[in-house]
Amino acid sequence: MPHELEIIKSTAAMQARARELRAAGKTIAFVPTMGYLHAGHLSLMEIARERGDILVASIFVNPTQFGPGEDLDAYPRDMARDMALLAEVNADIVFTPEPDDIYIPGFETYVALENLPNRLCGLSRPVHFRGVATVVTKLFLIVQPHTAVFGLKDYQQYVIIKRLVKDLGFDIRILGGPTVREPDGLALSSRNAYLSKAERESATCLNRALAMAAQMVTDGIVESNDIIARCEAFIKEHPGTRVDYIAIVDPDSLADVDRIDRPAHMALAVKVGSTRLIDNRRLNE
After folding, report:
1. Domain containing 209 — which CATH number?
2. Tens digit of pLDDT for each residue in 207-221?
3. How far is CA 163 from each of CA 35, 127, 157, rounded to the nearest angstrom?
4. Angle of CA points 58, 150, 95, to nearest 5°
5. Which domain holds residue 21?
């Protein structure tokens, strides 16, 4: 049976509760989200549930990671459904701050990494990762977790958060949760709700392109340009698609890999209709 979910809305109350839990010797496992939860989020909760005494989730649609013309106002929200799902996975606490509590009047302090954001999604979303790094830093200071879990679907974000934690000396273990997919391979995402039926069918080309790339590597094709060109042509065969980027990169530095003779990770972003979708996978070990 689901147990009662503790709802905390203010940063001061969440910090006080975290201090209380830590003083009592409890370990805190944390999953930050922007809400509109799906099975991918819940899989992260399950990982976190096994890594701490207290499972804390946050729901906060972070305005600073949305650029001009992006979907901040339209981003899907369903707080009542989210609360029910969190109760089902036995979350202990949900932290639901308001923007003006996270970004107080006169706020002017941001966290920005020098290199990792200037690749992949950061090229077309230049303010995104500054917003991500800033809000995650704030959430870590408020929730005070011992462990935090992030989805590997957002692979660049995962790499950036690991770097941030290392650089700033946070005593927090960062774990990555595997991408959860629909039966047809489409990675679960809150933004899938934007897709029409026809767009939803076209969107399966992202995961299929990644699978094609992995098979090419298995077959001995190791020049990244050849793999990327084949995958781009395949994606463009699907109605309503427009490639933002396809890249094959080092799994840690995210620097481009020209020849796959060492571990390599493929990431892509594709607009399907007006919806921007991302996906990624390791091509080899």
Report:
1. 3.30.1300.10
2. 999 999 999 999 999
3. 24, 18, 10
4. 5
5. 6-177
Mean pLDDT of 235-247: 98
Of 42, 82, 40, 44, nearest to 61 (Cα)? 82
Q: Structure pTM?
A: 0.96
109 by DSSP, 3-state: which? coil
Shared domain check, 205 and 139 = no
Within a domain: 269: yes
Position 270 confidence tier, pLDDT thresholds 50, 70, 90: very high
* Burial class (CB within 10 angstroms; exposed 0-12, middle 13-18, buried 19+) of 189: buried
**Catalytic pick among 3, 38, 41, 265:** 41
Residue 184 lies in a domain: no
> Environment class of residue 55 by beta-carbon count within 10 Å: exposed (0-12), middle (13-18) or buried (19+)?
buried
Is residue 154 within 8 Å of residue 278, measured between CB atoms? yes
pLDDT value of position 3: 72
Alpha helix (H) residue ranges in the chain: 11-23, 39-49, 79-88, 99-102, 121-124, 128-143, 155-168, 197-202, 205-218, 224-236
Is the pLDDT at 2 greater than 80? The verdict is: no
Helices 11-23 + 128-143 axis angle, to 10: 50
The mean pLDDT value for 99-109 works out to 98
* CATH number for position 130: 3.40.50.620
Does the structure show a pLDDT above 60 at 1? no
Over residues 158-186, mean pLDDT: 98
Residue 163: CA count within 13 A, CB half-sphere: 20
**Residue 46 burial (CB < 10 Å; 0-12/13-18/19+)?**
middle
What are the structure tokens assigned to 248, written together? 């094959």
Catalytic-residue membership of 41:
yes
Name the domain count of the chain. Answer: 2
